[in-house]
Amino acid sequence: MNRNLNIVVLGGGESGLGAAKLAQKLGHSVFLSDRSSLSAENRQALIESNIDFEEGQHSEDRILGADLIIKSPGIPEKTPLIQKIRTAQIELISEIEFAARHCQGTIIAITGTNGKTTVTSMVHHLLETAGKNVALVGNIGTSFAGSIAEGDHDYYALEVSSFQLDDIIHFKPHIAILTNITPDHLDRYNNSLDEYAAAKLRISKNQDEKDHFIYCVDDALTNKYLQDYPLRAQQWQLSLEQSVDNGAQINSDGILQIIINQQLDMDINELALQGKHNTYNSMASGVAGRLLNIRKEAIRESLASFESIEHRLESVLQIYGIEFINDSKATNVNSTWYALESMQKPTIWIAGGVDKGNDYSQLAKLVGEKVKALICLGTDNSKLHAAFEGLAPMVIDAADMDEAVRMAYKMGDKGDAVLLSPACASFDLFENYEDRGRQFKNAVRQL
């Protein structure tokens, strides 16, 4: 891509802004188009960068005159404009594809339905602990392209969603980590789990024998779809339930063993994040570290010192012996399953929001064992009531977050935990899961 191109960026969020900045830095002609209104911050950034843009509309004639179009991940394939672009046979790629074409560093890419943000943060922390020049990018916050526009790094810990993988062509991470596959976002994939899984597995599409693919061999759906998916990369397995030849396992004495080159052993009680799902996360980042030849001492130090990310099983406060835990990032049932599975105290569970066709049956056993009360927070809680009345001793509704937190506090006893783990999207009462989590924390602090 040496010649000056006429590049159009569709979408003016973090991803689109980063792509536009990188395209401009590379000397291309750039036009950003967003059908919605831009945030004041991004609008100002475009003005300051002297990047041509429009908002509130798509000027189709100008867009269809592009040499290359970079699409933000939130725009579905079935959108009429995207179909017109396909018909016109204009090259259409994702922001991570564009960024990767201009990346000089080593890419460690992480995807999966749950755990990808934690694993990405762990990989970043591990490489920082080892003294490496590493950027934390992608779906986690800072766009991959935007980071490259600001300057090169030796390593990129890159969180990628299925939406971002939909429009890759040559994207090729040196290390790819697939945490798991569970049903989510099926409305984007014609209600097809097969299509959703195929999108996740695209992370390994261009890998070759010099690259590495890390996955959880205990995850039934991952195993199912890998049977029909060709992998050329070297494979590394994670398991809590069986022995593996290459990867990471737990032995009978509760020792985490990373079996790569010289074996690394670490007592699971030393891990900073506890719980079954977090052990998988620690395994994944530890295996990635060993594949990058990070010293065993640095890996142990990083896994023992990692601090939980905001809104993911984040301990907020203890008030009169009641622990308040913010797991607002749990926007699907499987994430909430992991949260409930990790609870070691009688739990008052706050859940609810926009139901994405959730099947709550997989939570029934855990709710019966661990939940002393369920507080439903959303505009329509009928499915939660139907699923859990009779399993939890009490199922009640709250009008807003302040009321939910006050209710939980009044119900709680010393030694209990109050867990916000919604299992639903946040768009009925909140702007997003971050807004929901911050409202929870503010309400707790006001008790």
TrEMBL record:
Every copy of the Mur ligase C-terminal domain together lies at 311-424
Catalysed conversion reaction: UDP-N-acetyl-alpha-D-muramoyl-L-alanine + D-glutamate + ATP = UDP-N-acetyl-alpha-D-muramoyl-L-alanyl-D-glutamate + ADP + phosphate + H(+)
Sample GO molecular function, one term: ATP binding
Give the UniProt record's GO annotations in the biological process aspect.
cell division; cell wall organization; peptidoglycan biosynthetic process; regulation of cell shape
GO CC, sorted alphabetically, is: cytoplasm
The listed locations are: Cytoplasm
Enzyme class, one word? Answer: ligase
Task: Describe its function.
Answer: Cell wall formation. Catalyzes the addition of glutamate to the nucleotide precursor UDP-N-acetylmuramoyl-L-alanine (UMA).
Q: What residues does ATP bind to? A: G112, T113, N114, G115, K116, T117, T118
Instruction: Quote the pathway field.
Output: Cell wall biogenesis; peptidoglycan biosynthesis
Q: Which Gene3D superfamilies match?
A: Mur ligase, C-terminal domain, Mur-like, catalytic domain, NAD(P)-binding Rossmann-like Domain
Q: What is the name listed in the Swiss-Prot or TrEMBL entry for this protein?
A: UDP-N-acetylmuramoylalanine--D-glutamate ligase
Family note: Belongs to the MurCDEF family.
Sequence ranges assigned to domain Mur ligase central in this UniProt record: 110-287
Which Pfam family is one of this chain's hits? MurD-like_N
Under Enzyme Commission nomenclature, its number is 6.3.2.9
